[in-house]
C-alpha cells in the first residue's frame, strides 16, 4: 500500500499500464486480431481511459467497499486481496464497456457483447492482478521506496 500521494500515483500508473497492456493483448488474441500495431494503437487511449476511471471513480469506491467488508483489517494480505478484488471488479465493469463501445459501438447486441466481455475479462483480470501484476508492482514500489525516488521530501537542493 502506498504511503503518500507520490507513491499512490506511481503505483496506480504502473498497475494500470500493466493491466491495460496484458488485457489488451488478451482481448486482441480472443478476437483473432492480435498484432503489435493493434496492441500499440489501442494501448495509449486504453491506458488514458483506464487511468482516469481508476483515479476518478473506481479506486475510491473499491476502497470504501473493501474497508466495509467484515475482514481482519490488521492483516495486510486480507486488505490487499479485498481492495485488489474490488478494483478488478470495478475496472472490468468499466473497461469491458469501453472495449465493446470501441469494437462494436452501441448496437442492439450491446448487452450481450458486454456480458460476454465482462465474464471473459474477469476470468483473466482477477488472477492476473492477484497473482502477477499486483505482486510485481508492489515489489517495484518497494524497490522505488528504497531508492528514495518516491519520498515526498526528495526535493533538489542548491
UniProtKB/TrEMBL annotation:
Entry keyword Nucleotide-binding: no
- InterPro entries linked to this entry: DUF2798
Question: In terms of domain of life, where is this protein from?
Answer: Bacteria
Span-the-membrane segments of this chain are 9-28, 40-59, 80-102, 122-141
Note whether Signal occurs among the keywords.
no
Keywords of the record: Membrane, Transmembrane, Transmembrane helix
Pfam name, any one: DUF2798
Q: What is this protein called?
A: DUF2798 domain-containing protein
Q: Which organism is it from?
A: Enterococcus quebecensis
* High-level lineage: Bacteria, Bacillati, Bacillota, Bacilli, Lactobacillales
Amino acid at each position: 500500500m502506498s504511503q503518500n500521494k507520490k507513491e499512490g500515483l506511481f503505483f496506480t500508473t504502473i498497475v494500470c499500464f500493466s493491466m491495460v497492456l496484458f488485457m489488451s493483448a488478451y482481448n486482441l488474441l480472443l478476437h483473432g486480431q492480435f498484432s503489435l500495431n493493434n496492441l500499440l494503437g489501442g494501448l495509449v487511449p486504453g491506458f488514458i481511459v483506464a487511468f482516469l476511471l481508476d483515479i476518478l471513480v473506481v479506486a475510491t469506491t473499491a476502497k470504501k467497499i473493501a474497508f466495509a467488508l467484515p475482514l481482519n483489517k490488521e492483516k495486510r494480505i486480507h486488505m490487499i486481496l479485498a481492495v485488489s478484488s474490488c478494483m478488478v471488479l470495478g475496472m472490468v465493469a468499466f473497461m469491458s464497456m469501453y472495449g465493446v463501445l470501441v469494437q462494436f459501438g452501441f448496437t442492439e447486441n450491446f448487452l450481450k457483447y458486454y456480458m460476454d466481455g465482462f465474464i471473459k475479462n474477469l476470468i483473466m483480470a482477477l488472477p492476473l492482478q492477484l497473482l502477477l501484476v499486483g505482486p510485481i508492482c508492489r515489489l517495484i514500489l518497494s524497490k522505488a521506496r528504497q531508492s528514495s525516488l518516491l519520498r515526498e521530501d526528495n526535493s533538489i537542493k542548491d
